From TrEMBL:
Membrane topology annotation: Multi-pass membrane protein
Residue spans of the Solcar repeats: 12-134, 141-225, 235-333
Keyword line: Membrane, Mitochondrion, Mitochondrion inner membrane, Repeat, Transmembrane, Transmembrane helix, Transport
A biological-process GO annotation: mitochondrial transmembrane transport
Gene3D superfamilies listed in its UniProt record: Mitochondrial carrier domain
Protein name: Mitochondrial carrier protein
InterPro entries in alphabetical order: MCP_dom_sf, MCP_transmembrane, Mtm1-like
Coiled-coil segments: none
Amino acid sequence: MSRSPVPASQQISLGQQIVASSSGALLTSLFMTPMDVVKTRLQTQIQPVAKGECFLFNNGLMEHLCTSCAEPAKDLRCEWFNRPGHFNGTLDAFVKITRTEGVRSLWSGLSPTIVSAIPQTVFYFTLYDNLHTRLRKTFTDGYIAPLLSGAGARSVAASVVSPLEMIRTKMQSEILSYKDILKAIRTSIKHEGYTMLWRGLTATLFRDVPFSAIYWIGYEDLKARTISYFNRKDTNFFISFMAGATSGTVATVITQPFDVVKTHKQVTIGRIGRKDMKKGKPVTTNKPMRVVMKQIVAQEGVGGLFTGLAPRIFKTSMACAIMIGTYEYLKLVFKRRNFAEN
């Protein structure tokens, strides 16, 4: 692996790093949320709802929620569900969601995405840069520093923002209001404790830690090789964009099964039995990751673990490209500004 030039993070302030990473997170969220919504809807439409259960939220759109309810009551009518039918792929999902729910539905959960993405990205990228700066001085092998830095930074960041990630996933799997979200969370905490806020964290770590390690190894290597090939002293937006998209694609394919399991585990929040609806007793389940994975394989085959792969590849590769391209570009702008001022 080629050794990259001195990172710009060594030549800019912490505040400038925060501005660069938060700007990248904001742009990425605005551009890529529609793909994230479609990916989540494609995954959640195959998850069965047990007999006698339905979702707590009375403004969901998933067709199977009504048919699985036991003892339907007049005060809990199923007609309010807007039924777009089953989605037959990415393009079909885009068309049906837009036609039946409106264009704005493609940005479902944008607010919590931004609330989650900005602090997580600021923390994650700042931690990665500083870890990488230190570790690259210790390890001569160019692969070790990005591997350890990426895995370590992602582990900490994912644990910190896990509750916000769970809420974002739930909002995107159905049309929800903040009032409904808070009601579901309060009910679940009452019966399950605060640990329910980290439901799905194990699956998230299994997906995100390997993804981060693979991504940063690939990104740093591709960036360094491209800089060397063009005899440049530093990166630019195009180099970072292409390196980010390529390494993001590879990491996405490898970790896709864990993304499917993570989504299935997190959308169970708020599911309660029709008979227990008035009593407020949640019947949510917190099945181990391996159990959920086995159920998916049994019901859908091995291919079920790769549901939503196409939109996730596009979304993740583009998100990686936009994020790292913006981040590296702004770091260079700040570095040159600091150099000029000094």
